[in-house]
Amino acid sequence: VQLQASGGGLVQAGGSLTLSCVVSGSAFRQTNMAWFRQAPGKEREFITSISYSGASTFYADSVRGRFTISKDNDKNTGYLQMSSLEPEDTAVYYCAAGMRYGTWNYWGQGTLVTVSS
Questions:
Q1: Residue 98 CA to its chain's centroid (Å)
Q2: How much is the average pLDDT of 59-82?
Q3: DSSP assignment string, 76-117
Q4: 3 - beta bridge partners?
Q5: Which end of the chain, C or N, has fewer beta carbons within 10 A?
Q6: Burial, 39: exposed, middle or buried (Cβ in 10 Å; 0-12, 13-18, 19+)?
Q7: Res 49 pLDDT > 90
Q8: What is the helix, strand, coil percentage profile of the chain, to 5?
C-alpha cells in the first residue's frame, strides 16, 4: 500500500488549503484514513480521521470547525480541507491509512504547510 500526499504550500493566516492523499495498492473502499501533523520541534500529533465508508469522522480540538476530512472512493483519494489557517498550523502533514479504524499501518511521505502571519 502506498500513499502519496500533496497540496502543501505557503498560505497567509486566515487562508485555506486542501491536501490530497492518493492511495494505491489497497481496497480503498475498505480503507480508513487519518491525517497527522508534525510541527518543528514537536511530536507528531493526530488531527483527524474518517472511517472507510465516510460515515464517521473525528477531529482534534485544535482543528475542529476549521478542517474537514473526506475521501472519494471513486478516485482512491483522501482530502483534508483546511480553512481559517493560523501560524500554529505550520507543520508537515502526513496522511495515514489502515483497515482497522484507529490503527494506521500505512503512511504517506508528508507535505509541508507553512502559514505566514
A1: 13
A2: 97
A3: TEEEEEE-S--GGG-EEEEEEEESBTTB--EE---EEEEEE-
A4: 23
A5: C
A6: middle
A7: yes
A8: 5, 55, 40
Secondary structure of residue 71 in the 3-state scheme: strand
In the chain, the amino acid numbered 45 is: E
Report residue 46 as a C-alpha cell: 493526530
Q: How far apart are CA 70 and CA 75, in angstroms?
A: 12
Pairing state between β 2-6 and 17-24: antiparallel
Phi, psi of 76 (to 5 degrees): 55, 40
Closest by CA position to 85, among listed 5, 10, 35: 10
